[in-house]
Structure formats: structure tokens, C-alpha cells
Fold Alpha/beta-tubulin-N-acetyltransferase 9.
Amino acid sequence: MRINENTLLEGKNVVLVPYNAEHVPRYHVWMGSEELQKLTASEPLSLEQEYEMQSSWREDDDKCTFIVLDKQKWAEPSVPEEQCMLGDVNVFLTDPDDRSLAEVEVMIAEPSYRGRGLGKEVVQMMMTYAITRLDIKKFEVKIGLDNGVSIALFKKLGFAELSLSEVFGEVTLGMDVDEAVRSLLLGNTGFMKEHEYGKSRDNRH
Ligand SMILES: CC(C)(COP(=O)(O)OP(=O)(O)OC[C@H]1O[C@@H](n2cnc3c(N)ncnc32)[C@H](O)[C@@H]1OP(=O)(O)O)[C@@H](O)C(=O)NCCC(=O)NCCS
């Protein structure tokens, strides 16, 4: 999506930035991991395919992607942005007839960053952005049945089970954004600030 191509979302511990070509090499290394392929139900891609994917995600108007950076590292101008990367978060508009429905995906790719509350922070920031900027009213997430951590994360955020496929080994959780959910989420992400990405990045140097 082009809507976030110059958007930076500042959180408490993370900074979300649009997925650019300069992020692709590190992303490609992450997705070479069999563990992450399994947890995110992804197929391995060549580096060239990964560049094509990055560019199509930027152009397609049904997918909004942010790369997650370590805020503390990124604040240090001498550290290249690629070295601050720790994961990604997306929303897909899966139903062309209902652009208020979004599927969420999150990945804290660097194991040393897991279990520190970042997944929760990142998902809540993405959901707030999706509600306020993309007018999303319903979220869904598909999770492998053996991914207990991710299931626990989304249930904690108020998602409930919609369906379970033993065949695909996958559960679908969902959440409608009513007024109560909206105000809780916006309250929980009151710390979030939106900046211009290009300007903020130039100011690092
Ligand atoms: C799943 C994932 C996004 C969770 O992010 P995280 O930063 O590790 O999780 P958080 O520290 O924010 O924890 C959020 C909640 O998840 C649950 N959780 C986290 N670590 C857990 C663990 N080791 N065991 C059980 N539950 C756990 C808890 O409910 C936790 O809430 P709490 O701390 O308030 O109790 C992350 O581990 C990840 O990206 N893993 C690999 C890729 C993946 O599985 N992506 C999801 C595909 S659907």
C-alpha cells in the first residue's frame, strides 16, 4: 500500500517503518529459517523474488506492511537501519467486497526480542493504525495449532475463535471493532506517535 510509504509509527520500545528495498537482505535471511517458515506458513523465496515481493507489497492496495525496528538502537545514528530490524507486521485486506476486514500477521523474527512484550505492542499499534487510517472494523488472524504463543497473544488482545481446521492444522481467531474495543485499543496505544519517515530518517544523520 502506498498510504504508509512515508509513515513512521513511534511506539514505546519499537519504531514501525515502511518496508523498503534496503530491508530486503535482512528479511531474506530471516525467511531462510525453517522455524520462521513454519510458524508463518511461508514458502522460501530467492533474494530476487523477495525484492519482487517487497515491491508488490508496496504497490498492492490490499496489503499494508511495516518493518519493526528496535527504537533504542535506531535512535543511535551510527547504527544502520538494517541492523535495527527485529520483525514485521502486516494487515491484508482479504475480501475485495469488504474492505473493512483485515487479516493481521506479526513476526518478531529475532529470537532474542521475543517474550518481552514487543509482539503485543506491535500488534496493538498496527490495529490502531488500521482502525484510524484504513477504516478497518473487523480483524482476523490465522495461526498454526502448534503456535501456542501466538494464540495466547491474540486471545489476550480479545480475539475469539471463529473456526478450526484440523486438516490445515490452523485456527482462525477474530475480533469485531465495536466502540468498546476501539476506545480500549486507542487508550492502550496512547503513547503512539506518527511522524514522516523520510524526515525522521534524515534527522538521524
Ligand atoms: C508470536 C509472537 C509474535 C509473539 O510476540 P512476543 O513479542 O514474543 O510476545 P509478547 O512478549 O508480546 O507476549 C504477548 C503474549 O503472548 C504470550 N506469550 C509470550 N511468550 C510466551 C511463551 N513463551 N509461552 C506462552 N505464552 C507466551 C503471553 O500471553 C503474552 O502476554 P503476557 O506477557 O501479558 O502474559 C513472536 O513470538 C513471534 O513472532 N514468533 C515467531 C513468528 C510467529 O509465530 N508469528 C505469528 C504467526 S501467526
